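To fix ideas at the outset, we first show an illustrative case, written as a sequence plus integers encoding its fold:
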Amino acid sequence: MNFNSIARERSVIFRVLFAGFVALLLLAAGRMASAASDSGLKIVVLGDSLVAGYGLGPGEGFPEQMAKSLAKSREKLEIINAGVSGDTSAGGLARLDWSVPEKIDGVILELGANDALRGLAPELTRQNLEKMIISLQQRDIEVLLVGMRAPPNMGKLYEDDFNAIYPDLAEKYKLVFYPFFLEGVVAKPELNQADAMHPTAEGVGVIVERFLPTMEIFLRRLSGD
């Protein structure tokens, strides 16, 4: 019995089997990558209580109602609610990396309302939002910037400085832009909760309806249409 010959045969068989195993792994990886590419768009809504669903029931928040409105036309679209009640622009910046995981296509950035309510310096709000935009763009994640307005009781100087943040950043970074999140709802008691600050489920429905044309523009940009 030639043990060297047997050893060589076993070595050849092992190499053939190993090559086949590697080929199967590569094929499986290719299929997984293909499946991932076909899984549709993933969007994170990064914001405060206005998107978190404060005071609302399951499925009544902005991300959920938006996803439902788009379900027929965008079957594979996933919208992730990353809203935190009470969050400021600084809070959003601090949690950006874990709130927006890998393989996210776009972010709807809705922050700053609490900055204005607390009278924080508009320049700090601008800096925080800008840092988030830059970080997301460096990760090849598109941003839809949602504008907010300062309360009129803050004074005209503060109001002018704060309100200019959003259109300025949208223009500078070529973002899809929705000028005012509460458009059509603000100062309408029938569309707001008892605190007169957070929309009811019906109010969120109005916001979604008004937001949809801008959302479609954003989705076309994400899809490369």
